[in-house]
């Protein structure tokens, strides 16, 4: 995917140039609250987050950067608006990349100071243009997508004049359509790695839908080198959702996939609680197995047979399938437990085999 | 969208041929439990569901069809597997459309009997091929998408020989990629209206992600005339998610859009509970207004200004925006209430204006 983009390094993570699409998130603690910020980043690391961004709105946040970095494993990006000095100081404090929205920094000679410092320290800069903070000179452009791209390209050209190409670009809008159009345009005009996101996309559910649609459409056409799902919710959800979008498109493997029927009047077993229980217990498992929980005989045995492990409902009992074959009948009363016990065995076997290899 | 597909009528709903993409769902009550099934369909109608499907696995369910129909407003589809007689009887009982998976009906002369009855009563038939129940003769085809399409087209050709073209087609897989590939192939080979879905897509969250990605990719390229989001969850969610996917792509207008920031270390107000409260209160509102809830000054005033109404956080208080202008400062302690009061006024004004027109 996106294999024709430039390779850019962020700490020890490479994006672009055919690397797997990297998943990032952003903390919502006050950055200067080092304990809380580190704790949040550790939670994010645990669910697979590969790059993390923190807001840097003041000098206390800058001072926190080296202390946070000492306690985390993944690269840290400093997010800066308005103050070019903060960007320069954040780079000096050890940020692995900075994100600026040049429109919020102001005059180009101030942007130049930031770029010179990034060049000196050899770190990447994301030019993150955003529909909510477009430069006033684009306020009359009716096509938001075009305005976002024009503004972004203008800054790219400026950076290139300074002989700086260590760039990642984003053109986020809170409108899914504007975002899709903007990224498509940008991808056709540059080969810098693209950071995808639908900005201010809303609550856990609404934001997940908007992000899955928007990022899904772009990723499916080969656009995107790193993604962030923005949700007004615990950032841990952002990572889960991001990986599930990538897994749906076969771009990353994240964890077990649960194939479960939507239940209908044909259902012989109570699928929903079984699915919820299995999903909860598999939340931290990263082995990419397929688990089927199916309510009846219509697609049940078919899906269960295709899955690594699964159960299909029957009149009084269910049938447990493993490796494509019916293993045994199980009672509908403790289906989740029985299925989970078999899943655990399967995961152990897979891990043992891996160790041997 | 999909304006070059044939028009097909389901009760009083038309799909295909440039009609808006219709949203459907399926009950999960026992169909023969008329009271429960009607109650569930009324709930679905209330959230905007336009077509509903019920499972018809036995003769009690067939007998329930006329009684259910008397109590609901939207067209009813009978979902039939295995028994061709049930399909014939469901049509006689007044189903507005039937869905069959011919591979589950069996021999073609039995399928013919169903088609002849549909022709007689002038109702549409969905040929719903499914990865979990593919005809055994395709079991060796490695490309599931190709197998789904081949099987579907085979039945389409058979129906056309019987001079029956009142068809809707689906080729669902639990794999997002297989589904995308199958529908793309199918759309290039036929002009029948397509019913999109990712089958057995999983729990509320996982299924929402897989469906949003899969249906999003297809809808964005103009494929799809009616959609069903399959979730192992209350079917009401299926309708909400379906409309939000369509709204994200500008294909349908469903209700208020909440633009809200993901919160970060820069946040001056507690965005998440405000968003949750506003979203809850607007759940049943169908006026397509844009509401912004933004935590700080970076994109806050920008987004709030572009929205119909919004709030942007500040150091001690927020600023309420309406129609692009700052209206007044509001305290951060009762932000949700103040914002909601203004939203209600706005909705009343919009509805009054509508009445006058």
Can you offer a commentary on this structure?
Two copies of one chain form a homodimer. The radius of gyration of chain A is 23 Å and the shape is elongated. In chain A, strands 8-7-6-5-4-3-10-9 form an eight-stranded parallel beta sheet. Chain A folds into two domains: 8-248, Dihydropteroate synthase-like (TIM Barrel, Alpha-Beta Barrel), CATH 3.20.20; 257-356, Sulfite Reductase Hemoprotein, domain 1 (2-Layer Sandwich). In chain A, helix 7 runs parallel beside helix 8 (204-220). Helices cover 44% and strands 19% of the residues of chain A. Chain A has 357 residues and is α/β, with parallel strands linked by helices. The interface between A and B is large, with 83 and 83 residues.
Count of separate structural domains of chain A? 2
Content of β-strand of chain A: 15-25%
* Assigned CATH architecture of the largest domain in chain A: Alpha-Beta Barrel
The fourth-level CATH homologous superfamily of the largest domain in chain A is Dihydropteroate synthase-like
């Amino acid at each position: 995917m996106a294999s024709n983009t430039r390779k850019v390094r962020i700490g020890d993570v490479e994006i672009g140039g055919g690397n797997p699409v990297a998943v990032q998130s952003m903390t919502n603690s006050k950055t200067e609250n080092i304990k809380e910020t580190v704790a949040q980043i550790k939670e994010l690391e645990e669910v697979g987050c590969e790059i993390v961004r923190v807001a840097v709105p003041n000098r206390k946040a800058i001072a926190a950067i080296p202390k946070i970095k000492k306690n985390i494993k993944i690269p840290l990006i400093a997010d800066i608006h308005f103050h070019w000095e903060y960007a320069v100081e954040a780079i000096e404090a050890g940020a692995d990349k900075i994100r600026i929205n040049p429109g919020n920094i102001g005059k180009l000679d101030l942007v130049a100071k930031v770029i010179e410092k990034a060049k000196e320290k050899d770190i990447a800069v994301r030019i993150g243009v955003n529909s909510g903070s477009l430069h006033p000179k684009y306020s009359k452009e009716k096509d938001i997508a075009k305005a976002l791209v024009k503004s972004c390209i203008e800054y790219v050209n400026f950076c290139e004049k300074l002989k700086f190409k260590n760039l990642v670009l984003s053109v986020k809008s809170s409108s899914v359509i504007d975002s899709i159009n903007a990224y498509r345009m940008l991808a056709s005009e540059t080969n810098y790695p693209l950071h995808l996101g639908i900005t201010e996309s809303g609550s856990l559910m609404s934001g997940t839908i908007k992000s899955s649609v928007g990022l899904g459409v772009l990723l499916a056409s080969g656009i995107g080198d790193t993604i962030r799902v923005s949700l007004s919710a615990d950032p841990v959800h952002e990572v889960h959702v991001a990986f599930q979008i990538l897994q749906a498109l076969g771009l990353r493997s994240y964890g077990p996939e649960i194939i479960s029927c939507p239940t209908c009047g044909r259902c012989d077993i109570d699928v929903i609680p079984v699915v919820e229980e299995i999903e909860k217990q598999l939340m931290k498992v990263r082995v990419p197995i397929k688990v089927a929980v199916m309510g009846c005989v219509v697609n049940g045995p078919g899906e269960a047979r295709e899955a690594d492990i699964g159960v299909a409902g029957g009149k009084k009992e269910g049938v447990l399938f493993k490796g494509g074959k019916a293993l045994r009948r199980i009672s509908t009363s403790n289906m989740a437990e029985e299925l989970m016990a078999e899943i655990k065995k399967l995961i152990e076997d897979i891990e043992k085999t891996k160790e041997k290899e």
